[in-house]
Design a protein that fits this description.
- The structure is a single chain.
- By secondary structure, this protein is an alpha/beta fold.
- It has helices at residues 28-36, 57-74, 87-100, 118-131, 143-146, 152-159, 176-184, 200-206, 220-231, 235-253, 258-269, 286-299; strands at residues 9-12, 42-45, 77-81, 104-107, 137-141, 166-171, 191-194, 211-212.
- Strand 3 (77-81), helix 3 (87-100) and strand 4 (104-107) form a beta-alpha-beta unit.
- It is an enzyme of class 4 (lyase).
């Protein structure tokens, strides 16, 4: 039986691209250390933020290997997202993640032949579990993007004892009532990671103890401070920091889509250059980049 004890902040890291759109693995050790130095103990590779679905299988393997190697130095938990591609490739990526020593695996659902109910999703995850039988497996619930909107409380309750390596979910949904019910499902046995930058304070107040959110890459102090304030029962302080974080997110995303704008923000206020977003995502134009570079620092301080 696998053991999964990680809780806390996990950064869904960007995939850094060179100017010729090849992946930049050379920056990974510096990137990992940058986050470790700012009290970010976990790394998610190939999430939505990491543009996993825009990479080939070979690229995803190479980048996963770089992050697992870096994590051995920084002592960070390395989670690899393997979904978002053809099912044989999903299973190949899961087996590869276990082979290279990833600490855990996350997967999107099947995105074309979508699961229509809880049992479909259990069956899908069971096949992935079978090819990585020694590595904790988590499910990536992001219905707005995946189109799969299975109730997580029902799914978690029904999953008990049916997926040998299953340990929890990444919950990227603004419905905190369902999120709370997922936390309590199956006597609270599963890890539930919040995946929403603008809901950290209310979610933490409800009992969430773990977050995977894009802003952790460049505003980690905001996330750590919100969670610490809630634990100390400093409600107004936590709310005030959340308001600052939300204001920063609004400035970042004002002129474009989530990933391209967040990459510009990372480049603007940290020493880590992750480049631009790969096609088919649309990047900001030069004027929009300059606007973000000017406006973000004013709202990015605690």
């Amino acid at each position: 039986m696998v053991n999964f004890t990680f809780r806390g902040l996990m950064a869904p890291v960007f995939t850094a691209f060179n100017q010729d759109w090849t992946i930049n693995t050379a920056i990974v050790p510096e990137y990992a250390q940058f986050l470790a130095d700012r009290n970010v103990p976990g790394i998610l590779v190939h999430g939505t933020t990491g543009e996993g679905s825009a990479l080939s299988v070979a690229e995803r393997k190479r980048l996963a290997e770089a992050w697992v190697a870096a994590g051995k130095t920084t002592k960070q938990h390395i989670m690899i997202q393997v979904g978002g591609t053809a099912f044989p490739d999903v299973k190949e990526l899961a087996a590869h993640a276990e082979k290279i020593g990833a600490d855990s695996i996350l997967t999107l659902p099947e995105l074309y032949f979508k699961p229509s109910n809880e049992q479909d999703l259990i069956d899908y995850l069971r096949e992935i579990s079978a090819v990585a039988p020694n590595t904790p497996l988590l499910y990536y619930h992001i219905p707005v993007w995946s189109g799969v909107n299975i109730n997580m409380e029902k799914f978690l309750t029904l999953s008990v004892g049916k997926i040998p390596t299953f340990q929890g979910i990444k919950y990227t949904n603004n419905d905190l009532s369902e999120g709370y019910n997922a936390l309590k499902a199956a006597d609270g046995r599963y890890a539930v990671f919040l995946g929403a930058d603008t809901l950290v304070q209310p979610a933490t107040a409800l009992g969430f103890d773990s977050v995977i959110a894009t802003g952790i890459n460049f505003l980690p102090d905001h996330f750590n401070s919100i969670m610490a304030a809630v634990r100390a029962n400093k409600v107004e302080e936590a709310r005030a920091i959340q308001e600052k974080l939300t204001a920063a997110v609004k400035v970042v995303t004002k002129n474009g889509a989530w990933v391209p704008t967040m990459k510009v923000a990372m480049n603007a206020i940290t020493p880590i250059d992750v480049g631009l977003a790969r096609s088919p995502l649309k990047n900001l134009n030069a004027a929009q980049i300059r606007e973000l570079q000017v406006d973000l620092p004013a709202v990015a301080t605690l």
